[in-house]
Design a protein that fits this description.
2 domains; seven-stranded parallel sheet; 16 helices; Rossmann fold; 382 residues; alpha/beta; six-stranded parallel sheet; 13 strands
Length: 382
């Protein structure tokens, strides 16, 4: 039996790429012949380094040899072209896809769709992708929606045999949009490789840490303002990917920290080893993104023993911390400043949250994701 795993862009170590690479691994382990579909070519050998998954010998169909900067969303809209070619040649029994842009392919096999975020939630999308809410970027994004209207499937329950999603937060959006009930499969997190480094004590840790691409939607400036208002005034560490188009924003947050008297350490494009070292020696983890789809970085912070403080919205609040059961949350910058002091000064509270973090992160280990995908595939194609 054959299976296709289709994802628009594979050439980065992001959450979507980890989801699809793990889906490839599960299908291979089940004995299926797996084919990858991508819009652009990518470095397969990097997946061993990033996630410990070998993709090098997997047959791949692509539309372009390389990614074309500035036209990412438009390239995504053309994912169906190499997908249609792969389906015609390979005649798969199963398609795993995490984009809604597959309307032109019809229904040639059993389909599992994994929804990271439903495109029709226009206002929600603009809140998450702040850069698309103003100036020329707003028109750039609106223009891309023309492609979505042409190539995007409408109600996923009329196209896919099984609709899955990454959090109960997204599941509720799907229910509001289309009336159907999606199956939640939380993204895989490499918990087991980090957990042995989670044990450092309160006294052996210092500073607060944030993980995420260095981009406006991550709201680093909110945390800088909160630290400046706090009594503890801890050092802030920022670990994340930085691309050329975000250098201005990177400069902006460094200047803001200087103006506010906040000690800021930045680690742009840090290695995996450095990320683990920095987070495992930090006292508190903060995730300031609003309406995050899920929040893999939050689970990573937990796996490295950090108590977590998240914005009171999105999957990081509803699914990971379960509305303050396994962490703390905030709404305003002033409230965040108080939460920082509470977690930074109160040793007993820190110990409680430290233990809860270690307990909770195991619910999102890669093995859990793989078991759930296996079960769904078995139910669908035997």
């Amino acid at each position: 039996m054959k299976a296709i795993v289709a994802h628009h862009y594979w050439d980065r170590a992001g959450g979507g790429e980890l989801v699809d690479a793990c889906a490839v691994k599960v299908l291979q382990d089940m004995g299926l012949d797996v084919i990858i579909v991508a819009t652009t070519g990518f470095r397969k050998e990097r997946y061993k380094e990033w996630f410990g998954i070998d993709l090098e010998n997997i047959k791949t169909y692509v539309l372009f040899d390389r990614f074309i900067p500035m036209f990412g969303i438009y390239q995504r809209a053309l994912t169906w072209i190499p997908l249609k070619k792969a389906i015609k040649k390979e005649k798969p029994d199963l398609l795993w896809i995490d984009t809604d842009l597959y309307k032109p392919i019809g229904h040639p096999s059993k389909i599992i769709e994994y929804i990271h975020f439903p495109t029709p939630k226009w206002e929600e999308t603009l809140d998450y992708y702040i850069k698309y809410s103003r100036g020329i970027w707003k028109y750039y994004f609106k223009g891309s929606l023309t492609f979505y209207r042409i190539y995007g499937r409408e109600n996923p329950f009329n196209y896919a045999d099984i609709v899955t999603c990454n959090s109960s937060y997204i599941k509720e959006m799907i229910r509001e949009l289309w009336g159907g009930t999606a199956t939640v499969i939380h993204p895989p997190v490499l918990v087991r490789e980090m957990l042995p480094l989670s044990g450092k004590s309160f006294e052996d840790r210092h500073g607060i840490v944030m993980i995420g691409r260095i981009s406006p939607e991550k709201r680093y400036e909110d945390v800088i303002e909160a630290v400046s208002q706090s009594n503890s005034k801890p050092q802030l560490r920022v670990v994340g990917g930085l691309i050329p188009s975000r250098v201005d924003y990177f400069t902006k947050i460094k200047l803001l920290a200087k103006e506010r008297g906040v000690e800021l350490e930045t680690y742009p494009n840090a290695s995996r080893e450095d990320l683990i070292r920095i987070v495992s020696s930090s006292r508190v983890f903060i995730h300031a993104t609003r309406k995050e789809h899920f929040g893999i970085a939050v689970v990573e912070g937990m796996a490295l023993g950090c108590p977590v403080i998240v914005h009171r919205s999105g999957g990081q609040y509803t699914d990971i911390t379960e509305k303050d059961k396994y962490g703390r949350s905030y709404e305003s910058v002033t409230e965040l400043a108080k939460e920082i002091d509470f977690a930074y000064y109160d040793t007993n509270e820190w110990e409680r949250l430290h233990e809860l973090s270690i307990k909770r992160c195991m619910e999102f280990d890669r093995s859990i994701f793989e078991a759930r995908v296996r079960k769904i595939v078995e139910e669908l194609i035997g």
